[in-house]
Amino acid sequence: MGVPFQPSYLPSGDARDISHFGAMQAVLDDAGVGRHAFLAEDQSEDRVAKYFERRFSAATKSKLLWPPSEGRKRRYLARALMLLNPIYERKLSATLKALKAGPAFLSEDAVFADRLDRMRSAVGEAEAIAAKIRAC
Q1: In the prediction, which pLDDT does 1 show?
Q2: Does residue 12 sit in helix, strand or coil?
Q3: CB 57: neighbour CB atoms within 10 A?
Q4: What's residue 93's pLDDT?
Q5: Which of 33, 72, 102, 125 is 20 to 30 A removed from 27 (C-alpha atoms)?
Q6: Which residues contact 102 (CB under 8 A, 6 or more apart)?
Q7: Is the pLDDT of residue 25 over 80?
Q8: What mean pLDDT comes out for the span 1-19?
């Protein structure tokens, strides 16, 4: 539809999430599978298979999971990280305000009216074609 839309990044407002996913990203980076960007559509099946083999290996999983014996430590860490939430919530709020002030996609009245007119004319053309087919 010719819409100049770009996805927006929203930071997390939860320090526990940031800590958890940061640690997860470090483990995956060490295994050589931290980013999905290198998996382009034209990659060979062998390379993709090796990626998944490393990504979901027992060694990688063992590094990602906390041992049951560290449950108490994990709970204390979660409580401590909650103290940082106001900082991350302010960052998230500022990002949302900036996005709100940015350009609107398909929500401006003129853009909506134009798209609606184009859709109605396309429906009219489709109905005319259907009527010709029925007449045959």
Answers
A1: 47
A2: coil
A3: 13
A4: 94
A5: 72
A6: none
A7: yes
A8: 78
Q: Is the pLDDT of residue 78 over 90?
A: no
Distance CA 68, CA 8 (A): 37
Q: Would you put residue 65 in left (φ > 0), alpha (ψ -120 to 50) or beta?
A: beta
Specify the pTM: 0.53
* Ranges of H-type helices in 1-136: 15-30, 45-55, 58-64, 71-82, 85-101, 109-135
Alpha carbon distances (Å) from 92 to 7, 8, 16, 58: 16, 12, 15, 35
User: Are 95 and 13 in contact, with CB atoms under 8 Å apart?
Assistant: no
What does the buried/exposed string (b/e) look like for 8-40 if buried means 16 or more CB atoms within 10 Å of the residue's CB? eeeebbbbbebbbeeeeeebbeebebeeeeeee
Per the structure block, which two tokens stand in for 134? 């029925």
40-47: long-range contacts, CB 8 A cutoff, minimum separation 24: none
